[in-house]
Amino acid sequence: MIDESLLRRLPKAELHCHLEGAVPAETAIMLARRNGVRLPTYDAQQLYRFADLPQFLTVYRAVCASIVTAADFAEVAYAAQADAAIAANLRYRELFVNPTNHPDLPYPRLLAGVLDGLRAAQVDHGVIGRLIPAINREQSASVAGDLVEAVIAHRVDEVVGIGLDHNDVLGPPVKFAGVYARARAAGLRRTAHAGEIAQARQVTESIEVLGCERIDHGYAIIDDPVALAHALASGVHFATCWSTCAWFHPDRIGVASPIVAMAAAGLPLSINSDDPPMFGTDIGREYHGAATAFGWTLDDAQRAALTVLDAAWIDDTERRQLVDEFRRETTDLGASTAELDIAE
Ligand code: ADE
Ligand code: ZN
Questions:
Q1: What's the pLDDT band for 85 if we cut at 50, 70, 90?
Q2: Which pLDDT score, from 0 to 100, does residue 333 have?
Q3: Residue nearest to ligand 1 atom 10, measured at CA
Q4: From ligand 1's centre to the CA of 117, what distance in Å?
Q5: Alpha carbon nearest to ligand 1 atom 4, residue
Q6: Which atom of ligand 1 is nearest to the CA of 166?
Q7: Residue owning the nearest CA to atom 5 of ligand 1
Q8: Is the beta carbon of 14 within 6 A of some atom in ligand 1?
């Protein structure tokens, strides 16, 4: 089995991490105090305690409420990127952000703050940050429509697409068909959380009705042969999350994880950290969990890290540069790159 410290040094990219979910409990409490926002507890050991997805999302929304100003966003975006770069050699990350969970901060100001943080982290720590504004599916289609219009009106290169998150049982994909069609027409890439705790049908609908190119989570697919065959034929990529999958599916952990079954079925997938400090993890730990269950060698782990770049929403020049850097660095770690054929 590969040593966790070696895995941490492997250069990595991730496609599924929520900015507000990447705020350590201590920082959330500091921001809440600074902004006069009420939290359920001010004890950092207690704040990130929950039993299921709805309870988790209640805590997540309280943390969102604590992030109030553009400067707050710059601070948390910088720290999230710096932490992952330092602890686990993260080099590229697409981050979700939920602008409609911050209704008092106009989207252009929120965006300016996040971009300040992402750009500074890239300069200081060499980690590229891209942004995916995510629709809170528990809110109305009209709120989602306004968000997408704001994203289109304030278009910047770092904002690469749109996402759909919160409780998949409470917001079916069809509710956002018009909003996704508008995003697609404006040239935005599209992903959606689906089949995290809801049924596999939501994965199929996200591909067919929303035109998604990636699916976040998607674990239910493994129990539905028709949806699985459809997903395989579509070529859609699954941005899975090792720890949150285990958390919300405690009966299927380790080698019994749906992620292991999804890989065995041939679905293209990546390993991601979702909401790292809220679940006591980071991208290094996610790779270690997956490596242990999959029985990865260092070459296997490198292959997994490189294939993430195939599904990243970056231009091909940048992708090739990252592939070259990943290969060079991983060879120094002792992996062979001979048989790899990624993104060429
Ligand atoms: N928002 C942040 N993390 C999430 C998750 N795991 N599922 C749905 N929405 C989320
Ligand atoms: Zn997520």
A1: very high
A2: 82
A3: 166
A4: 22
A5: 166
A6: 9
A7: 166
A8: no
Question: Ligand 1: which atom is nearest the Cα of residue 168?
Answer: 8
From the CA of 60, the nearest ligand is 1
Could you tell me if the CB of 20 is within 6 A of ligand 1? no
Residue 164 is given by DSSP the state E
pLDDT digits 0-9 by tens, 88-101 = 999 999 999 999 99
pLDDT of res. 335: 72
In degrees and rounded to multiples of 5, residue 94 shows phi and psi of -100, 120
Helices (H), the chain: 4-9, 25-35, 44-47, 53-66, 70-88, 107-125, 141-153, 177-185, 201-208, 225-234, 242-248, 258-264, 283-294, 298-310, 316-333
Per DSSP, the residues of 307-330 read HHHHTS-S-HHHHHHHHHHHHHHH
Output the average pLDDT for the chain: 96
pLDDT at 340 over 60: no
* Any ligand 1 atom below 6 A from CB of 21: yes
| CA 231, chain centre distance (Å) | 20
Q: Is the pLDDT of residue 338 over 80?
A: no
Q: Which residues are catalytic?
A: 196
Which residues fall within 8 angstroms of residue 5, CB to CB, at 6 or more apart?
A: none
In CATH terms, the superfamily for domain 4-23+67-343 is: Metal-dependent hydrolases (3.20.20.140)
Query: Which residue has a Cα nearest atom 7 of ligand 1?
Result: 166
State how far the Cα of 299 lies from the Cα of 305, in Å rounded to an integer. Answer: 10
Ligand 2 ion: Cβ-proximal residues, 5 Å cutoff: 274
pLDDT of residue 330: 84
pLDDT band at 331 (very low <50, low <70, confident <90, very high): confident
